[in-house]
Amino acid sequence: MPASDAPRPRTRRASADDNAGQVVLVHGTLDESGSFRRAQDHLSRWSVTTYDRRGWGQSAPLGPAPLAQHAADLTDVLGGLGPSIVAGHSYGATIALTVAAARPDLVTAVVAYEPPLPWLPWWPERAPWEQIVLDEGHAPADAAEALLRSVLGAEAWLRLPERVRERRRAEGPVLVEEMRSLRAGPPSFDPEAVQCPVVTAAGAESLPHHCLTARRLADLLPKGRYREIAGAGHPGHVTHPGRFADLVSAVAEVVPVEMR
Amino acid sequence: MDTVVAGRAPAASGPLDPRTEARLVWRVARQFAACLELPQITIRARSDFFSLGGDSLSIADLLARLEDELGVLLDADAVVAAPTPEAMARHIHDRTHDRTHDRAHDRAYAR
Question: So what's the ipTM on this one?
Answer without folding.
Answer: 0.90
